[in-house]
């Protein structure tokens, strides 16, 4: 990795200062009550400079989530990858993610209000915005190498499908007030993803599916 220049380090320091200031204000006063003007004043940067770094408050939240994921991966990923199975690696990671959402419910709602955050950046650039897709892909790839995950699908496809299911679970958790912990919903998704919902005595074969298709179309 190339070392940052002095100018790049200064820009990154300003970016982090803005982000940390904004998140502190969001948590103290609420997302809606915090304005870009207030963030500019508290961070001691010109309003124009703030908009050069972040076009909106939502963009700040997205960047913050990306920073949280990157920080976690840097500090804990080797320990995650040492766990004995793909299922256990995901179980460990999902408990951490669920805890963050539960502790930061308002930020969570802002973040997942746009599904693009789970796959792309704000301008649809084909790069994982928060690093989760990359991390999930790594876990599935290791599972394929060790033989406890099918190689019928690419590791990236598996990562994206699991992220989609987790997005749905998070969305329903935010919308419903039944008090069920998010971690329980995540573990249900994980069980469904790895164990499926079909019973051995109720599996429909491909040939039977073809018969059903021609019966209806």
TrEMBL record:
Domain HTH tetR-type: start-end pairs: 12-72
Annotated DNA-binding residue span(s): 35-54
Record key words, sorted: DNA-binding
GO MF: DNA-binding transcription factor activity; transcription cis-regulatory region binding
Keyword Hydrolase: no
PANTHER family linked: HTH-TYPE TRANSCRIPTIONAL REGULATOR PKSA (PTHR30055:SF226), HTH-TYPE TRANSCRIPTIONAL REGULATOR RUTR (PTHR30055)
Protein name, UniProt field: Transcriptional regulator, TetR family
């Amino acid at each position: 990795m190339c070392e940052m220049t002095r100018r790049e380090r200064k820009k990154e320091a300003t970016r982090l200062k803005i982000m940390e200031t904004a998140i502190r204000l969001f948590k103290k006063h609420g997302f809606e009550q915090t304005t870009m003007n207030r963030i500019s004043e508290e961070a001691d940067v010109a309003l124009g400079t703030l908009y050069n770094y972040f076009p909106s408050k939502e963009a700040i939240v997205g960047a913050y989530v990306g920073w949280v994921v990157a920080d976690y991966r840097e500090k804990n990923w080797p320990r995650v990858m040492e766990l004995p199975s793909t299922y256990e690696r995901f179980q460990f990671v999902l408990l951490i993610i669920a805890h963050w959402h539960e502790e930061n419910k308002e930020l969570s709602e802002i973040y997942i209000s746009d599904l693009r955050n789970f796959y792309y950046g704000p301008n649809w650039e084909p790069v994982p915005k928060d690093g989760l897709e990359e991390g999930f892909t790594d876990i599935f790839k290791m599972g394929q190498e060790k033989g406890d995950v099918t190689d019928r699908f690419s590791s990236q496809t598996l990562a994206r499908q699991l992220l989609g299911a987790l997005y749905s679970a998070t969305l329903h958790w935010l919308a419903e007030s039944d008090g069920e912990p998010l971690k329980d919903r995540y573990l249900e998704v994980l069980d469904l993803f790895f164990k499926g919902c079909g019973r051995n005595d109720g599996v429909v074969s491909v040939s039977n599916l073809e018969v059903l298709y021609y019966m209806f179309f």
